[in-house]
Design goal:
Layout: E1 2-6, H1 8-27, H2 34-52, E2 58-59, E3 66-67, H3 69-75, H4 78-90, H5 95-121, H6 125-137, H7 145-148, H8 155-168, H9 171-185, H10 193-210, H11 218-225, H12 231-255, E4 258-260, H13 274-277, H14 291-294, H15 307-319, H16 323-339, H17 347-350, H18 369-387, H19 393-416, H20 433-453, H21 460-488, H22 494-498, H23 515-519, H24 525-533, H25 535-541, E5 560-562, H26 563-580, E6 586-588, E7 594-596, H27 601-606, E8 614-619, H28 621-627, H29 632-636, E9 644-648, E10 655-661, H30 668-672, E11 673-681, E12 684-691, E13 699-706, E14 711-715, E15 718-720, E16 722-725, E17 729-734, E18 740-748, H31 752-777, E19 778-782
Length: 783
């Protein structure tokens, strides 16, 4: 007979998680930095999924048009797909709250993995709660979610599966480990893949060596290898293979026809030079590790774990001796050593390992160490509370009291040397530490007093008091970081939240020329709030405003654009060099960005800035006679007519046609035709062209959106070839036009079936992971 049971420990941890999220939800705290970028991406993908039933494959804004493959892999985890389906079923329009729900599901997955791992390696309930609450509450998603959360969110579950596999070499768990590792790639930046692979491998290798698993007899191994043929293992291998192929295929397509212009990367190889690898991503000073106990900075990497874990880390180094502890400690030390960058010896060596030359943010790797630090500390807690019932109780308590005094002293140094730059090499917008650090010290002192007071007593009641006081004080300590952040940070008005509401947008016929036009965009009130309250994040907050802002030049920086746009911009810079005798210098423009200055009317007309994105051209005999013997790239380096459009076929650098904008010819367009936008989404554009009179020459439609071979065009339902207009944008010849209304459409069908497959699979996988959470809360046992 099956008996229903509720795991109140796991349920209580869920309550802690919900309380943490409620604090942020009620504060109207909008994510900043990459957190805001993640929210924007969610908004963009969900909007088209809700309104048009498919994920956008094309992003027309900011970079003049770019495939969405990179953003699809980087910003959408499996739980975002679950939120998409949920929002679609209930027609939820506020993407901000739906995004927060998807983040909660990600946190729930981290909690589930941490709980399974802690139950596997720990014995005391207090140490299980400590580890899970510590991992959960020390994770921070509101500024840099990739390094402060996403990078390690699947690690506890992966480590649990590795240990389950090593228990009796059940290959079912090995297959599951592979699936979870592949899943961890979705929703993470591609360059994080080496870290996601190497850290679990290091953990597995150390456990294998230290646990003497390699000494198993051959007969046992042969018996277990038969598990490779079991149906469940085969199924997981098939899922693993499909997800891996899907990821690799989309990732390869993301780099096709695209140029990577990210800071610190070689555009040709996309690798990071050793000098950049050793320094990029913030401070690599060993002094920044004091943030484990001070919790000062919150600009990038958040590594504050509270003072009590540091106490028990020292304790565990002195007393704990088992395979899991050694494995965790070595991984912890390895990550801290790599995080030193050029100031250490390890980082220059591991740079030469396969794939690691693509990793860039060495200064932001340290938050991963929190997983291992808290695991080591939890093992120390396990040992300490078990020893309270043994003869070694007093010795261990003396050690713990000594460790506490040391940490109180180290933590107090901040107040003793508050004006010393040796101790305060932190960003100007770092968190004010006085409230946080003083409160944490007070809590640790209180724990110290409680421990001393009950030093000579060992009754069950006294032990319970010690346990619960310890737990409450630790939760107050770690919660204090979040409360301090909310106290010293800015909250935003409800209008900021309302700005993330799904609505269909009309095609913006011209790109923004000034920052005021950008700020007045109908759904960008959140950026106005940020610009007013946190100028240091304002530029980064609108770095990728592909949600609904379409500026003439990229804001702040550009990481990607198509090879055709990149070539066009270089060709026009070459034109300027020939005109002035030198290349224009990068300078701060309207958007507070360093960017080449294009004093070039042809450039701005072509990108749809000073002219409409939808233009019409007719053949120009003068241009043909002037440039007839030149190829397109040569022409664009010397073309001085702002209304000229050179058309060529993809793959052929010879001009197909020389056109002139009909608006430059006595306002010919108004006499000839009317244009009406019928429908616009990120994947398509449909328009009606009303022809008022028969054109005397062939008519061309030019669309200032980047060219890509996967675009398809139709004129009156008949396929039309898409040509390259001024080398980077789209143009079609309007043949077989009729008097009256003609229908023209553009559709981007790039990887449509692959995206549908990925959406369905990741939705189902997220359902399984959520089910795993509920199976931990509600279990059935045989009575």
């Amino acid at each position: 007979m099956l008996k229903f049971r509720i795991d109140y420990t796991f349920l209580g941890l869920n309550v802690i998680l919900i309380c943490l999220n409620i604090v942020y939800w009620l504060s109207s705290t909008i994510p900043l930095h990459d957190g805001l970028l993640t929210l924007q991406s969610f908004h963009v993908f969900y909007r088209d999924f809700l309104l048009h039933g498919e994920l956008p494959a094309w992003l027309p804004y900011n970079f003049y048009g770019l495939p969405s493959d990179y953003y699809l892999l980087t910003f959408l985890s499996p739980f975002q797909y679950f939120a998409f389906f949920l929002g679609k079923v209930f027609h939820i329009k506020n993407t901000y709250y739906l995004f927060l729900f998807s983040v909660y599901l990600e946190q729930l997955q981290l909690l589930t993995g941490s709980y399974l791992l802690s139950k596997k390696v720990l014995h005391q309930k207090i140490s299980i709660i400590f580890m899970c609450a510590g991992i959960l509450l020390s994770s921070f998603l509101y500024i840099q979610p990739f390094f402060n959360f996403k990078l390690f969110s699947f690690f506890p579950l992966v480590f649990f599966l590795i240990l389950k596999f090593l228990d009796n070499f059940n290959f079912l768990y090995l297959g599951l480990t592979g699936v979870i590792l592949i899943l961890s790639l979705f929703g993470n930046a591609a360059f994080l893949a080496p870290i996601l692979i190497y850290i679990p491998l290091l953990f597995l290798l150390i456990v294998l060596l230290k646990g003497n698993y390699l000494k198993l007899n051959i007969a046992f191994l042969k018996k277990r290898l038969k598990g490779l043929l079991k149906p469940w293992f085969v199924l997981f291998c098939v899922i693993l293979l499909l997800l891996a192929l899907c990821y690799l295929f989309i990732a390869s397509e993301a780099l096709n026809f695209s140029v990577l212009t990210a800071v610190g990367r070689d555009p040709s190889t996309r690798k990071v030079p050793l000098s950049e690898f050793l320094t990029y991503g913030g401070s690599t000073s060993i002094l920044r590790y004091l943030e484990f106990i001070w919790g000062i900075g919150f600009s990038e990497a958040v590594i504050y774990v509270g003072l009590i874990p540091i106490v028990f880390l020292i304790y565990s180094v002195l007393f704990v001796r088992n395979t899991i502890f050694y494995s965790s400690l070595i991984c912890l030390l390895a990550i801290l050593a790599v995080g030193l960058g050029r100031q250490g010896l390890i980082a220059p060596i591991i740079y030469h390992l396969p794939l690691l030359s693509y990793y860039r943010h060495i200064g932001l790797l340290v938050p991963v160490a929190k997983i291992f630090l808290l695991l080591c500390a939890s093992l120390g807690i396990d040992h300490f509370f078990e020893s309270l019932s043994t003869k070694k109780r007093k010795k261990n308590q003396k050690t713990l009291i000594t460790c506490s005094i040391i940490i109180v002293f180290l933590s107090s140094l901040y107040f003793l040397f508050e004006d010393n730059p040796f101790f305060l090499n932190f960003p100007s917008h770092a968190l004010n530490p006085y409230f946080l650090n003083g409160f944490a010290i007070a809590l640790l002192l209180l724990f110290l007093v409680v421990n001393v007071y009950f030093f000579h007593r060992s009754s069950r009641k006294i032990k319970s008091i010690l346990i619960y006081s310890f737990l409450i004080l630790y939760l107050l300590d770690i919660f204090s970081w979040h409360l301090s952040y909310l106290i010293f940070s800015d909250s935003y008005s409800p209008d900021s939240v309302k700005s993330f509401v799904v609505e269909n947008y009309d095609l913006q016929m011209k790109r923004f020329e000034t920052i005021n036009q950008l700020k007045n965009s109908r759904s960008l009130s959140v950026f106005r709030d940020i610009a007013a309250s946190k100028p240091e994040f304002a530029r980064y907050g609108i770095i990728y405003t592909f949600a609904d802002a379409d500026p003439c030049i990229p804001i702040y920086r550009q990481d990607f654009w198509t090879t055709f746009v990149d070539d066009f911009m270089k060709l026009r810079l070459s034109f300027q060099e020939k005109q002035t005798g030198k290349l224009p210098e990068n300078r701060q423009g309207h958007y507070g960005t360093l960017f080449p200055t294009y004093d070039d009317s042809l450039f701005y007309n072509t990108i749809g800035c000073t002219a409409s994105k939808i233009r019409f051209g007719i053949p120009s005999e003068n241009l043909r006679q002037e440039f007839n013997n030149d190829d397109v790239t040569t022409i664009l380096q010397k073309l001085d007519n702002p209304n000229a459009i050179i058309v060529n076929e993809y793959g052929n650098n010879k001009p197909r046609e020389f056109l002139e904008d009909i608006n430059s010819i006595n306002d010919l367009q108004n006499d000839l035709l009317n244009v009406k936008i019928v429908d616009f989404s990120l994947n398509s554009l449909e328009l009606d062209i009303e022809l008022k009179k028969e054109p005397t020459t062939p008519l061309w439609l030019i669309y200032a959106d980047a060219f890509h071979p996967s675009w398809q065009a139709f004129v009156n339902e008949k396929p039309a070839n898409i040509f390259m207009a001024n080398y980077a944008f789209k143009g079609i010849k309007l043949t077989n036009l009729k008097m009256g209304v003609n229908h023209v459409s553009f559709h981007f069908k790039h990887l449509r079936k692959v995206r549908v497959f990925l959406t369905i699979v990741l939705f189902l996988v997220s359902c399984c992971l959520i089910m795993l959470t509920f199976l931990n809360i509600f279990t059935f046992e045989r009575s």
